[in-house]
Write the structure tokens for this entry.
Amino acid sequence: MKKITVHASTEYDILIEKGILSTCGNIIKEKISAQKIAVITDDTVDRLYGKVVGKSIREAGFDVVKFVFPHGETSKCADTLVNIYDFLCKNSITRTDCLVALGGGVVGDITGFAAATFLRGMNFVQIPTTLLAQVDSSVGGKTAIDLKGGKNLVGAFKQPVCVICDTDVLKTLTPEIFSDGMGEVIKYGMIRDAKLFELIAKNDQKTIWTDLEDIIATCISIKRDVVEADEFDTGERMILNYGHTLGHAIESYYHYETYSHGSAVAVGMCMMAEKTCEPETVKKLKSCVKAYNLPTSVPADIKELVPLCGKDKKRAASQLRFIVCKTIGKAEIHTMSFDSFSIWMES
Amino acid sequence: MKKITVHASTEYDILIEKGILSTCGNIIKEKISAQKIAVITDDTVDRLYGKVVGKSIREAGFDVVKFVFPHGETSKCADTLVNIYDFLCKNSITRTDCLVALGGGVVGDITGFAAATFLRGMNFVQIPTTLLAQVDSSVGGKTAIDLKGGKNLVGAFKQPVCVICDTDVLKTLTPEIFSDGMGEVIKYGMIRDAKLFELIAKNDQKTIWTDLEDIIATCISIKRDVVEADEFDTGERMILNYGHTLGHAIESYYHYETYSHGSAVAVGMCMMAEKTCEPETVKKLKSCVKAYNLPTSVPADIKELVPLCGKDKKRAASQLRFIVCKTIGKAEIHTMSFDSFSIWMES
């Protein structure tokens, strides 16, 4: 078992191991003294892992209740959140009980936000079941829901009491959802770790499995280091947003339907690299992106994407901050007026 | 002008002065560098003070937008919250902008929660316009909305950048809403300050005005001291809940319609005093409560109220914690099993 300890406003462990899911109850028991556990999950994940997780938690001595909502990003909304609140309320969940987020990013984000706000805050455990959630949402304490006006516009910073990553569950992901996670994995190589990038680049979607546990642990460690230096996202942490300013615009332009987050980030990285890197670096990045069945461009014209960058909540008034990696493994924060950014990107 | 500085996770000032409302724009300007200010208020307060506040903020150089919702506790719900979020989103409010909560407890609670969660947190200023909001919500950083299942069940801890209390605005309160605030004012005397209690007790609703600025400042100072010792409400801060365990039950039993918060707390204090105080103390408390047109009892049978105490979110599993003041000015935290509490109260 790999263990990564995160020192945020509270300290917690991320545990990574094949098959760890079936022992999650005892792991949780070591961390907290709750009476009841409310498992929050979506219908897809519930069908696959609801039973094994419920059984393990029950056998560890907790009372278990479960709330299941329809899978997909459209569920990450205020309606689902209010349904979760009402469910917790009806089941008399108290401040000393605990939520378990069993699922991908949507489940983790909305459950984390519920845990941050129900009764003004209670414990929660994350069991991320997608590659994206394991490498991205498991560290950082960012929780959120979407609004009609944009993604992740409402949220809170909330650290879990522990994160349990079972790499076995990644085998049940569709190729598309696996690729989705690889977008972020490649990003970690780009912003911080040329060696990690090379390891990813020498593999492809078929061969990566043997190195996957190491890769996940490395990604999590990078994110841990960045987040520890800037828990509340006021500076350095911005570098995690490489590919995201344009990526979010792409997701938004296509109404979160055509491109997954990882695909949009992959395109965002490639577009930014084309503006700022040597041709050789652009080629390397694009080749790596393609090896994981991710796109390097989108049909939408840059003129249509740029105005949507303004919807990113990192935009401080008329200034836009975004990330540039001139070389693989090294990220810089750039600040530009929104108008200059438009002219530059469209040139 | 009286100034009380609160040292919470962030430091901020509470400013108390007659007529301060018309200069609020410049006060806010000294504190923050926002571009836009979104004023959140209800229709009653907007009619009275919307213009003067808007003008002052605009003249201080901010862009101003305003969201007005129907007055009353029923507005403190998820629907209003989502409408506020959508409004902020449509008006392109960014993280570096600022919200202003102009109104009573409902406005302060929901606006504070919106500020805690929109874009994962932004600045807000409180301008409490009721006595209750000035002495209670202005310190402590508790923000919340209600659920169908209970009051304040969803919320966050969020400190304002400053609080502006204009005692002139209290003159436009109905006698009922003024009394509502007096419930909490009496509570401060009971839990911490026998001298304050005597000052309140020697006055009544008609004569209190000359001492009001001092009384408000004393109440706020008491709450400040208690909250500073326990910002996240894990111990000592519980004493602020004197009268509230039964008070919340009364509010809930009557569906938040018959008894105001202050009235319910007044009854809660009297009921608890009858169980724990010398007859002389009970008499003093009841006489003071009556002088401010607050009730000392409710028709509901104690047997019907006690089960509703379990809905209080301070209830840690099967244990109930509640506050006892055996003498005026001194509060103790008691813990009892829920069953023992039922038997004791019903005896």
